[in-house]
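Fold sample X.
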Amino acid sequence: MGVAGALAARAALGAAAAAAATAAAATAAAALGAAVATVAAWPAAAHADGAKPEKAKAEGAKAEGTKAEAARPDWARGLVIATGVGIADRHAPSAVSARGPARRAAEEAARKQLAAALPALPLAGGGTLAGKLGDAAVKARVDRAVAAALPLDADLSTDGSWKVTLAVPIEAVRQALAGPRPAPASDADGPPVVIVEGAKATPAVGYRLGKLAAPTVWIKEVPPWAKDAPRVRARPAASGAASGAIDLADPKGTESTLFLILAPR
């Protein structure tokens, strides 16, 4: 992607944080997800109603209803992903007329899976997201993030059924916990991406990088577009160190920097 792409990604992250500060939480979650997807070149294109149909499902797929696959976190992409299936109404006048309701049913099934999975996300400071959902403001922001889930893929069957994959950015969950944060002008002075080497931490939501509360993804190898990004080493956790923090030997970046936590295979 190069320096220009990385700078564009940082700008998108900053714009999303600013949107959150104006209480447009759903818009912020979507913008953050788009920024993270830009940085890591993750596919996030859904087919429109006129998408090329895949091979027809088995005859039994014409029964009315929905199905869903359990949601799963993908820490390398910074997403929690779920797939829902909307089965076409066999009583509809045609497969074309069944598409709209089936698409909506598939999306709703995927959102239900996301809502069910998010509470189990581990937090850097200990516990899981479930323990924070008693706070009405946090729960409302998480609910908005689910409602604004990003479409990653959509497959249309010839009978009008849909299989739709949606995702909630893990960064949206972190911001739901932290609350809105305006992006100061000084954020533009830092690098858009920093690679963290030597961290012994396991993936979780909300790690602080030194004193910074910033977006993170967890990678096993450095992608080509980030090969020239500055690198910092994580210090061994000191006795009494703050829980949920990764101490950096030579801190770089700002709270608008995307930190790639390198955990080699």
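Fold sample Y, listed below.
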Amino acid sequence: MRPSMMIQAKADRYKAMQEGMSTKEIPLKWLYGNETDDPLRFGFDSKRVVHPTIKSPLIDSKDIQARWQQVMQTEGYSASKVAYIHIPFCLSHCYYCGFFQNFIDRQLEDAFIDCLIDELTQAGASRFIESGAFDAVYIGGCTPSALKTANLRRLLEAINNYLPMADNCEFTMEASLQTFSEETLKTCKEGRINRISFGVQSFDTSVRRLMGRAIEGKDALARLNSLASKVKDSDLLVIIDLIYGLPLQDRGIWERDVETYIASNIDSADFYQLNVFSDSRLKDLNDSGVMPSPATVGEQALMFARTVDLMDRSAQSRLSITHWARNPKERNLYNSLSKGGAVIVPFGPGAGGRIGGSTIFLKKDIGEYIEDIKSGVKPLMFMTESVGDFTLYYTAIGQLDKGFLDLKPLEGQYQQHCYFIYELVKKWQERGFVQHSEGMISLTIAGQFWHVNLTQSLIDWLQTRIKE
């Protein structure tokens, strides 16, 4: 799942988790997995979470502004620093998406960009922002490329003016082929963007039409190949997302999607499992019988295994469980740093961040966001207390996202924690999710498919055992 969707999923479900099941009430099979001869397809009953989340108490709403200001007055942290900037507008509402916020409204867009620039300006004057350069900046959404060119230009100028960026900063913008033009490309280049991520989802026209995509598959491929060829001698990279498990997308269609990417000029790709969200149009259409059913989790598991097989044969670099690159310039830096515990400074309605183990989410309602910015305050929805031992947790999250967990370097500082982790790893090894040798834990193909469940299980297990 791309960063913008992960952030929205986490925000919408974080508060519910605080009020929900305690870790002591979690069934053991949620932690260990099922005992089965086929852990790839049946290792768990279902995907437990979209994105691993660490449970931590919420700060009282009356105190969060003071806490935020306290953070912004510090000199910063030694951890890497990234920024996430959320654009809450889309040209259309894709059926599979559970995070739609607003259709494009040009008058509202102008007011929003004014406020987003004000938010960047206010942050840029703080000691926290001034004290260290950003290693990655990510503009996500909804659809950032749907902005008017003038507004995109204003936004990029503000980012460059108020967020100090490292010389090799990875600067990404999410885009839609339907809203990406030559003028957009020119503006991106002038604004120092060096990575554009397109949500393609599938190259199959029947699947695309069913999901509400306007551009035929062959035209989407032609546009992407043309763009990749046009920028191949520059620093700009073209990235795509493909989703497996969509309605009408059987294993044959998915295999052609992967092979189409392999044969293309596109620099890099993410291969994501379809999540059917309870509040998505896809769920409603499927329940009413209008839309064919998506693939079962077991079918998705076979699609994932075939993806790994095809991509390994392609000799492209695997940067995470879901991400491959043919271009050696691709680093997947924002994803890697954010999952590994970097500071994430959020901007824009619905954006999420993290500073020093404290999780932050901004108000999603654009009207409330604009009102707060005009009042000179950060539009905070909620903020959590800092997670104890957050470095250990995010080391585990970041490494498991890459298919391994190396406990040896952690044993000195976290001896008791590592003992608890080894208890859990023993159960995972019995069920076929991992291989373990001298502190190095490697995920099997089944473990890779279920890695989000395993990561959440590790977090829940540690938070339970440490309290005992």
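Sample Y note: Residues 106-124 form the longest helix (19 residues).
Also: The chain has 19 helices and 17 strands.
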